[in-house]
Design goal:
Elements: E1 3-7, E2 10-12, E3 18-25, E4 32-39, E5 46-51, E6 58-60, E7 68-73, E8 78-83, E9 92-100, E10 115-116, E11 120-124
Parallel strand pairs: 2-11
Antiparallel strand pairs: 1-3, 3-8, 4-5, 4-9, 5-6, 7-8, 9-10, 9-11
């Protein structure tokens, strides 16, 4: 059974950085397309980044380009999301999601995925 566990969230000040981690277990992570999503209070879940099985292809939402970097270490079954220059509007619960897939089309769409983590809270405030 596919399981995903996020970690690395916390309370930070504007301008600081965080690295979120998503550990994929149950199956070999290298078969999985993985995405990161976030949901702020009162807002819909938003896809922010995704990475192909090999890590050779990545995508980002326009709202986070240049500040977010996604990467993966398949030997550790872990996908990372580096967030730099954090802004108050980045405050949200961040979720990772996975689906067994060869391609990465539609990878910023929540419906693309069939496994989700429980989320990790990121709060940006001075």
């Amino acid at each position: 059974q596919l399981q995903l566990v996020e970690s690395g969230g916390g309370l930070v000040q504007p301008g600081e950085s965080l690295r979120l981690s998503c550990v994929v277990s149950g199956f070999t992570s290298e078969y999985y397309l993985v995405g990161w999503f976030r949901q702020a209070p009162g807002k819909e879940r938003e896809g922010v980044s995704c990475i192909s099985r090999s890590g050779s292809s990545t995508k980002y939402a326009d709202s986070v380009k240049s500040r977010f970097t996604i990467s993966r270490d398949n030997a550790k079954n872990t996908v990372y999301l580096q967030i730099d220059v954090l802004k108050p509007e980045d405050t949200a619960i961040y979720y990772c999601a996975a689906v067994r897939s060869v391609g990465s089309s539609g990878c910023l769409t929540a419906g693309r995925y069939d496994g989700w983590g429980q989320g990790t809270q990121v709060t940006v405030s001075s």
